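Dear Dr. H.,

I hope your travels went smoothly. While you were away I took the liberty of generating a structure for the chain from your last submission, since the lab meeting agenda had it listed for discussion. I wanted you to have the full record in hand beforehand rather than looking at slides cold. The sequence, exactly as received, is reproduced here:
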Amino acid sequence: MDQSNRVQSIHQTAKAFLLHQNDHPNLAINKQQSHTRIAGICLKFLASNSLKGQRLRRMKNASSVLTPGAEFADYACLFFSDHLQKCSSEDSTTWNLLCEFLNSSVLLWIEYLARIGKLYHITRTAKNLRAYLMRRVKYLTPLSSQKWSLETWINDLIRLSAKFRTSLTISPSSIHTLILAICPSESIISKTYASRQRGLVVKGLTDKT
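The corresponding predicted structure, in token form, is as follows:
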């Protein structure tokens, strides 16, 4: 036991013995269940007003010293898709939380990544979402609107990162106004969020997709 009352395994052989699932099932860690649980926790946070609160704190405080809440916000924004990619594809609760996040808070997530200088995680997330969808698709109907929606989000996130990374780095909040206004009208980001935002409206865009 260390000074923080944490158990530290001195020898790897002891660790392997204690965590051997056949001999000690109560100590065993089911990786898929664990990833499912963590993915769910992260997605609940990202889809809630908690991310908006952390975003405001980021805007007011440029200090590199993070509060515990900010540390979790960073973790959820950066790594939720890694857990999602390894979670149970059969679990409908996690799938519904992902759809809720995409339909409610993905712009806040993009802005947050821009503020912490980690926009490259947009592409990483899109790749993880594609891997997750490939496993999840067998539990969906062939004409599932949610399946189509996620496929479109994956493509649009990659395009968004490629076209607007520099602009987002300069002005993270532009994702809600300027960038949203010039996204093609048939893109999933425009269809989902354009009607909710007030401000700049660009008329006469020639490319709808």
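Two observations you may find useful: The radius of gyration is 20 Å. The first helix runs from residue 12 to 18.

With kind regards,
E. W.
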